[in-house]
Design goal:
mainly alpha; 2 strands; 5 helices; single chain; two-stranded antiparallel ribbon
């Protein structure tokens, strides 16, 4: 099994809005994405091509949260979705709402939400059946009298 390798050209082709992000910075975002989705043989996503797509989604999410889409390259400081906004004297209110697990962090950007939805099947429980139990332990034994 192999690990997914970051391809900057493919990432920018898929997410052209991040064209201003340097290749070195994007590679750092990709390395950080490995904290959220295991990029080793032990990953729940065994298909390396699918894992690369998912890691690229998380990379875009991290880049957006880090301010890569802003003109000055700085994060906005807003956390959550915008719940209300006003124009006179500029006012913005954000909220996370009640979202179970770590979904709230992923729902801050469309990239993260896409990743959250795409990985839904990997977050469910995996059934591991128990070993068969012998209910008649003496059935094969020879009794002495």
């Amino acid at each position: 099994m192999a690990v997914a390798v970051f391809d900057y050209a493919a990432w920018v082709a898929r997410y052209p809005e991040f064209g201003a992000v340097s290749e070195q910075r994007a590679a750092l975002f990709f390395a950080e994405a490995g904290l959220y989705l295991d990029n080793t043989d032990a990953s729940p996503v065994q298909d390396v091509a699918m894992r690369l797509v998912l890691l690229n989604m998380v990379t875009a999410h991290i880049a957006a949260l880090s301010g890569a889409l802003n003109a000055d390259g700085k994060p906005s400081g807003l956390v959550g979705r915008v719940s209300s906004a006003s124009e006179g004297s500029v006012s913005v209110t954000t909220e996370l709402g009640h979202v179970p697990g770590s979904a709230a962090w992923y729902q801050q950007t469309s990239y993260g939400l896409g990743f959250w939805q795409a990985t839904k099947r990997f977050r469910s429980a995996v059934y591991v059946p128990a070993q068969p139990y012998n209910f008649e332990p003496w059935s094969g034994a020879t009794w002495r009298r």
